[in-house]
Each structure stands twice: as C-alpha cells, then as structure tokens.
Design goal:
Blueprint: E1 5-14, E2 17-27, E3 32-36, H1 43-50, E4 58-63, E5 66-67, H2 73-76, E6 79-83, H3 94-102, H4 110-120, H5 133-145, E7 151-155, H6 163-176, E8 181-185, H7 189-193, E9 198-203, E10 206-212, H8 213-219, E11 221-227, E12 241-247, E13 250-255, H9 263-270, E14 274-281, H10 284-294, H11 300-307
Parallel strand pairs: 3-8, 3-9, 6-7, 7-8
Antiparallel strand pairs: 1-2, 1-4, 4-5, 9-10, 11-13, 11-14, 12-13
Helix pairs in contact: 4-5, 5-6
Length: 311
C-alpha cells in the first residue's frame, strides 16, 4: 500500500461556513505527516472527517485503502487516534481502562501495554479523572499504541504539555511503531520540525502547500539586500518574493522559490546597486509565519500562487 491516507477534494461545511475546502493530499507509507495551520484553519475538521466522526459535504477520503465513510471494526483495529479533546471514560481506573480497550483489538500486545505503562509511569490504580492532562494523554496514547496500529492520527496531542513530556510522547510514537504512518496536527512547530518528514499547511480551510520537509526547507530563504543608497522597491518584484520591506538602504523579503544557482543574478536584476546580499536558512516557524503573512487579505491574490509549487 503506497498511500495509507489520501483525500480528494474533501470538503466540509457547517451551514454557510466552509471549514474544509477541497482538501487533496496523499500521505506516503511510513511518513510522519504534519498538518499545520492557525486556529480555525480546519485541522480538527479534517481529522474528524477522515475518521467518519463527521460526514464530508463533498469529496472523499481513504484510510488504509477504504473509503472513510465505510470504515469498520477491521480498519479501526489498525488505526490509532489521540485527540487534544478526546473523550475517555474518566470514571475508569487506568488499569481497567487498558483492559477494556484490549478487547477491541485482536493484535493487542500485553507486553507492549506493560512496557508503555512502565515508560509513562502510569498509575494503574488511579481513576482517569484524577490524572493531570499530560498523564491522560499518556494513557490514551498507551491504549492506541499497544496494538501497533498501521496508521496513527494525532490531533493536537501535545498542547499544554511541558517539553520533557512532549519529547517522551514523540519518542514513544516513533520508536514503538517504526512501520506505522503518522498523521498529526499541532501548533508546536519547533517540535514538529525535529521529526516530521512531510508538512502541509491549511489556511481558512484551504491547502496552501503539502511537501517533504527537506524540500520545504530548501526552497525558503530569508533574503537581506544592502543597497548603496536608499531606493524605492520595484513594483514588479517576483511573486515568489514574499513580504518585501525596506528600511533605509536595507531591503528584506522571503524567497519561497530559492535557487542558489540564480539567486544573486536575480537580486542584481532588481537591485542593480546592491552592495551585499545575504540568504539565511529559515526554521519552520519562520517559514510558517512568512506564509501566514503573505496569505493575509490584500496579499493573497498576488502571492498565494507562489507559496506552493505543488497545489
């Protein structure tokens, strides 16, 4: 199976509000695919529609080769799901909760569950409602990893957790399910940058880009041009040069289609008096901020076409 998760023009509307607009993505087998975007961008709606918690308004999605609207017990036994706002039976004690989940998964491994309990230091005799948020997430994650799912969906699972807990949870997902495909949404850009293989970005329900993390990092650069004397910004700058600004003799912009072979010649063409040109590698957070700024009303029409090479 080459694509454990795929969508084709997947859309979801709530009345007149289009929460998800024609989302088309394909998640390769074995990928750690991160879905990014601001609050209200449609990430949770996408997750719930994928899992058939919500019916799509139009379009389609497939998980493990099955239409999301026809997912059954066999498919859910191979899918792990942890959500920031996931409802769990909080009256249960941790040990009983894991035993309860065990009956739903033919591939449940007691040894894996025991190891996760030890790793997460889960108190088996305490009720879920008496646990901290971090411990509740650990309990939910343990119940979703003990059967070694082929596809893991994580909807904002790390929000509000301290750095050490986040690192522990990430390592657990990656180490204990090395053959699984992971699809997650998160606001924690710095954490995602360290382990995601693919990145997608939603804005107002629309997909702006979806590509490998390495390719995304390679094509974005923060450019600073120092001129010999102050000058007006040209009106015909390339649309791939985002968020251009000028202060005195210094011009700055983000090149979203950076090409090291033609970089300096392109800059010299628009700034013939340039005395110095600097290109800086951008962390994921800076890339996302640049895309968000370029996508604001008034900028979107000019620049949205060049934010992504694969839309």
């Amino acid at each position: 199976m080459s694509a454990p998760l795929r969508t084709e023009r997947l859309s979801k509307a709530f009345g007149h509000v289009e929460a998800l607009r024609e989302l088309t993505i394909e998640v390769p087998e074995g990928a750690v695919f991160a879905l990014l975007g601001p609050n209200g961008a449609g990430k949770t709606t996408a997750m719930k529609t994928l899992l058939n918690i919500q019916d799509p308004t139009s379009g389609k999605a497939e998980l493990l080769g099955v239409d999301s609207r026809r997912l059954g017990a066999g498919e859910f036994a191979r899918i792990g799901y942890v959500s920031e706002n996931q409802q769990i039976p909080e009256w249960m004690k941790v040990g009983y909760f894991l035993s309860y989940c065990r009956e739903f998964y033919p591939d449940w491994r007691d040894e894996d569950a025991a190891e996760l309990v030890r790793l997460f230091e889960l108190p088996l005799d305490r009720r879920l409602r008496n646990l901290s948020r971090g411990m509740k997430v650990k309990a939910a994650l343990a119940s979703s990893l003990a059967y070694r799912p082929k596809l893991i969906l994580l909807d904002e699972p790390f929000g509000g957790l301290d750095v050490l807990v986040r690192e522990q949870l990430v390592e657990s997902v990656l180490d204990r399910t090395p053959e699984a495909t992971v699809f997650l949404s998160s606001h924690d850009l710095s954490e995602i940058e360290s382990f995601a293989s693919h990145i997608a970005y939603l804005s107002e329900g629309r997909l702006l880009f979806a590509e490998e993390m390495a390719a995304l990092s390679a094509r974005f650069r923060e450019i600073e041009v120092t001129l010999g004397e102050p000058a007006e910004l040209p009106d015909d700058l390339p649309v791939s040069w985002l968020n251009s600004e000028q202060s005195g003799v210094v011009t700055g912009f983000v090149d979203s289609q950076f090409d090291p072979d033609r970089h300096r010649s392109d800059v010299q063409r628009f700034f013939p008096g340039a005395r110095d040109v600097t290109a800086r590698v951008m962390p994921l957070r800076a890339i996302v901020l640049a895309i968000s700024k370029a996508s604001r009303p008034g900028r979107r029409e000019r620049q949205a076409r060049e934010v992504t090479p694969c839309a």
